[in-house]
Amino acid sequence: MSHGKQFTLFSLKPGPNGWHVAFILEELGLTYENVFPNLDVTAHQGPEDLVKYNPNGRIPALIDHGNNDFVIWESGAINQYIVDRYDKERKISLAPGTEEYYTQLQWLYFQASGQGPYFGQLVWFAAYHPEKPQSVLDRYTNEIKRVFGVLEGVLSKQEWLVGNKPTVADISFCSWNEIITTTVLQNFNFEKEFPVTAKWHKKILARPAIKKVWDERAKLLAQG
Asked: Reaction catalysed by this chain (predicted)?
């Protein structure tokens, strides 16, 4: 490790997915170096320096130098790998093999399949697509609100998604929720429309490790 860190994390400064991996690493006190490849979000193929680690050509991808330079990509799989291997005290995760572990996994799958793609599609059509078809914008906006409704229904009955404590499942939602509610959705009041979910989100965002990483992102974006 020439940089002296245990992990190399390929990420994207404005995008959410690499940052919620960084959240997990920071929560567990694991050292890592962020690498930001020259990724054109409108391109169909990633740059060579990323494709050699992730054949999908997208971020995030993680190299674990403490485990024979093992490479893993897809944020849900990365987060699961990190907590399974390194969260031995179960600070932010549940023990493998337990029922709660599979509930945690359920929420990670929901984040990856139910939150990320729909939130990302709204960003694409709102910010990058040459046309702005209102029917498409409405579809993804409504789907985002549906996802928030799922979270609201569950969190109205319990403080955290699983295990009566904040876990990787809760944290994995944070970066997309923050980006979509502060910079993308129009005429949207998070606290008014989904008060329980908004409160839950703010508690996660205020955690010292999460705040540290998100502040780092803000500084990088400010630098251009």
From this structure: RX + glutathione = an S-substituted glutathione + a halide anion + H(+)
